[in-house]
Design a protein that fits this description.
249 residues; alpha/beta; Rossmann fold; 7-stranded parallel sheet; 3-stranded antiparallel sheet; 10 strands
């Protein structure tokens, strides 16, 4: 696991985007196409902005997936991750993507999990952008996370810490409004990505980061599983790295 600490969260996002863009260019040059996971949430603002500024990426050769979506939240809701990605990234791509596979939490969620599972199985992921939650969740896999299931997407229950994070970031007006369930990419599916790029700025992520990087691998700290991935790169700012005993580059 490679750890990079940038002076601030803007530089952090730019460094993560630049690293991911380089990998994407390499994959496209070698294979003629690439499969990419993009993430949502406050930790991804700077990454998506910086990715859009990257030059010479053949976006028309990239197939996109994303990590999760709330169950029952319509696409027009301010907290919808489909809305987030369309407004902040997808609609701003300089050339149309080859494909952009959104997660919908409306309708038959089990059928949606099956649909997405078939698609992502046919498109092995080259680069995965993701964040780490305040409770160390990876995607919406809250503790205790399922490290064993091979199902690519599944319906999960959101714990109170996760729901309070969504409220604290301003996505909902009250805790009661935050959905209790979501569709999430599974832990093992994320771990199948050839390269994983984690960005987790801000002091509120510091304990989760320290537990994930320097603690034991345990389902009670879902993102600790990343210690077992041989090509994971973690981009932090001084605040989120504050509890690490060993600092990165």
């Amino acid at each position: 696991m490679q750890i990079t600490i940038s002076p601030n969260r803007t530089d952090n996002g730019q460094a993560a985007a630049a690293f991911g863009a380089t990998r994407l260019r390499e994959v496209i040059a070698q294979r003629g196409e690439a499969n990419l996971i993009v993430a949502t949430g406050a930790s991804q603002f700077e990454i998506l902005e910086a990715l859009l500024r990257e030059k010479e990426i053949a976006w028309d050769k990239v197939t996109f997936f994303h990590l999760d979506e709330y169950v029952g939240v319509p696409v027009g809701h301010p907290a919808s991750f489909r809305k987030y990605l369309w407004e902040r990234f997808h609609s701003k791509l300089p050339t149309p993507a080859r494909a952009f596979h959104y997660v919908s939490g409306e309708g038959d969620v089990e059928a949606e999990c099956n649909r997405l599972g078939a698609l992502i199985t046919a498109h092995p992921i080259d680069v995965c952008f993701a964040g780490v939650g305040e409770n160390a969740h990876l995607a919406f896999n809250d503790p205790p996370a399922d490290f064993e299931t091979e199902v690519p997407y599944l319906v999960v229950d959101l714990d109170e810490a996760c729901r309070r994070q969504q409220l604290g970031e301003g996505w909902f007006g009250s805790l009661e409004e935050v959905p209790a369930r979501a569709i999430s990419m599974s832990i093992r599916q994320i771990m199948k990505s050839k390269c994983i790029i984690i960005t987790a700025p801000d002091e509120r992520k510091a304990k989760a980061i320290a537990d994930s990087i320097e603690g034991p691998v345990t389902h009670t700290v879902p993102s600790s599983i990343l210690q077992q991935h041989n090509d994971t790169h973690v981009f932090l700012d001084p605040a989120s790295a504050g509890l690490l005993s060993k600092k990165g580059s």
